[in-house]
Design a protein that fits this description.
The complex is a heterodimer of chains A (about 150) and B (about 160).
Chain A lengths: L1 H18 L5 H8 L6 H22 L19 H17 L3 H9 L6 H24 L8
Chain B lengths: L1 H13 L5 H21 L7 H7 L6 H4 L5 H23 L9 H17 L4 H10 L3 H23 L3
Classes of the chains: A mainly alpha (about 150), B mainly alpha (about 160).
Chain lengths: ~150, ~160
């Protein structure tokens, strides 16, 4: 049941990205150029629903039904990487109008041109992984990210 | 009367396409993440898929840490593609393609790929799930990428890109 549930969640998530027009880079760029502020409703609308789920679920259920895991708050630790990585992400987002989830959804709405962006994301993720795997091995004490 | 007209004009300027599609779409994006969280306890994001999928073809230690989750992350991404395809069939009436230049998509994609992994999250992991859990780390990440994204998009537009 675990995998089917993830599939259903992904379908709802992707349908939402299509419906909100976030799968279209032009709409994201319009937001960043202050021509249409609708994106704020997507991000905060989504955050409102997940916030409700994060708040209510641990108070109703002891463990997740499909994994037996506890509903812990697994917060990502803050360090300089969050700002540096976020800053780099933003330059890419502002240049292309595309982010990972929206890129997959964009493929779903028939936008084959988006394969350029998906190829780029894999290249970028590979480059940082290659680089950081090397530096992690060279100096294991210096790891602090993730 | 006049204040109402001014308010309507401001709303039309800020939201030329209304807010319905954005609000409903955003609630659905959140619902998709919430369904997975309630069933599994996992707070899902879209960008870890990049590294977890690379673990199928690369032995780098950064990617190996995602071997255990790579199968379901692939399913999550397939679900996103499928869900968007359902939207396209039902509401869009066929395929839609972007006019954004290929080099902007490619170069932007590379930076997104680097930045999201170094910065520990993207618009769904930080923006939707992180903000939803009131994570200070995610709020800082969102502010960082919003600032540079707005700056970049404005500069590119000013240069006529």
């Amino acid at each position: 049941m675990f995998v089917p549930l993830v599939l259903v969640g992904g379908i709802i998530f992707g349908f939402g990205l299509g419906f909100s027009h976030m799968a279209r880079p032009e709409v994201v760029l319009n937001f960043l150029q202050f021509e249409d502020f609708g994106l704020l409703f997507v991000m905060f609308g989504g955050a409102a629903v997940t916030g409700l789920a994060f708040f209510v679920t641990p108070r109703v259920l002891d463990r997740a039904p499909l994994t037996g895991d506890r509903f812990e708050r697994r917060l990502k630790p803050f360090d300089r990487n969050v700002l540096v990585g976020g800053g780099i992400f933003g330059v890419g987002w502002g240049l292309s109008g595309i982010c990972p989830g929206a890129a997959y959804a964009s493929l779903g709405i028939g936008n084959v041109t988006i394969l350029w962006a998906i190829a780029g994301m894999f290249l970028g993720a590979y480059a940082q992984g290659w680089w950081r795997s090397r530096t992690d091995t060279a100096d294991p004490a210096a790891t602090g990210a993730d | 009367m006049v204040p109402e007209l001014v308010a309507l004009q401001v709303a039309a300027d800020l939201f030329p396409n209304g807010i319905g599609r954005y609000a409903v779409g955003g609630l659905l994006v959140g619902l998709g993440a919430a369904v997975i969280y309630v069933g599994t306890g996992i707070s899902a994001g879209a960008s870890t898929f990049l590294e977890s999928t690379l673990s199928y073809v690369s032995g780098q230690s950064r990617f190996r840490q995602y071997v255990a989750s790579r199968d379901w992350r692939l399913v999550f991404t397939l679900g996103i593609v499928l869900g968007a395809a359902v939207y396209a069939v039902v509401y869009q009436g066929g395929a839609w393609t972007t006019e954004v230049a290929w080099w902007r998509l490619l170069a932007g994609g590379v930076l997104v790929g680097v930045g999201t992994r170094v910065g520990k999250g993207c618009t769904s992991g930080h923006g939707v799930c992180g903000v939803g859990s009131a994570s200070k780390t995610s709020l800082a990440g969102v502010l960082a990428f919003l600032a540079t994204a707005i700056l970049t998009a404005q500069v590119v537009a000013a240069l006529g890109g």
